[in-house]
Specification:
6-stranded parallel beta sheet, about 50% helix, 9 helices, alpha/beta, about 230 residues, 6 strands
Length: about 230
């Protein structure tokens, strides 16, 4: 029987990747003024793949990678004024309201009466703390963990710190790479709830098996947990 449920935050509880995609589109249009045929997305992803180990996850790393990509893609032609515009976009992203996904609030309120809930999210500490506070969900969780990376080592440390029995734990999230794969590898259960957009660096090739399930909506989660 599962007694502890971990939940991812971005794109599991509230919208996130769609915001990043919007600003990436703005950036692509800006760069297209210099190079109409450049594939800005592919250039950006390659830099993000390298920079995530330096800047981490979140808005700051994303915007720094966009600026670096723009400078390289335009051969240094991008203007100081345009870079200032990009920095303004970063401020807009930080100020963007937190929009819960459909059914999240009611589902979390239902689950808290039956399970120990742990919010496990990665990214910039300040930004994640601000989003958690703005979401109105913080008081429904028994613990909140903001981590730099979500891998086997991180989860193992969290299980030890919170005295979580891996055999009675399920992790819920939109990313197979971050939310499902490492937990299943440690012996836990996974619940994948896809978001309509997935960041390229979150794709994974793990094959479905008995240790994890895919649901289409978080409102299906209470019934699935009750059947375990």
């Amino acid at each position: 029987m599962i007694d502890t449920v971990g939940l991812d935050a971005d794109d599991t509880l509230w919208h996130n990747e769609s915001i990043f995609a919007d600003y990436e589109d703005r950036m692509a249009r800006l760069v297209a003024r210099y190079l109409p045929d450049v594939d800005f997305h592919e250039r950006l992803i390659e830099l993000e793949r390298h920079n995530v180990a330096i800047f981490g996850y979140g808005i700051k790393g994303f915007v720094l990678s966009m600026i670096e990509t723009a400078i390289e893609a335009t051969g240094g032609q991008i203007t100081a004024e345009e870079i200032h515009t990009i920095i303004g976009w970063a401020k807009e992203m930080h100020a963007h309201p937190v929009e819960l996904l459909d059914g999240v609030a009611d589902t979390i309120r239902e689950l808290e009466h039956h399970y120990r809930l742990v919010l496990i999210t990665k990214g910039d500490l300040w930004n994640q703390e601000a989003k958690i506070a703005a979401s109105g969900l913080a008081d429904h969780f028994d613990a909140v963990e903001i981590v730099a990376e979500k891998d086997q080592g991180t989860y193992a440390r969290l299980f030890e710190r919170h005295d979580i029995d891996i055999n009675r734990f399920a992790m819920v999230g939109n990313s197979v790479r971050s939310d499902i794969e490492p937990v299943v590898a440690l012996g836990g259960r996974g619940v994948h709830i896809p978001y309509h957009l997935t960041w390229d660096l979150e794709h994974a090739a793990i094959s479905p098996h008995d240790s994890w399930v895919e649901l289409t909506d978080i409102r299906q989660l209470p019934d699935w947990l009750a059947g375990q």
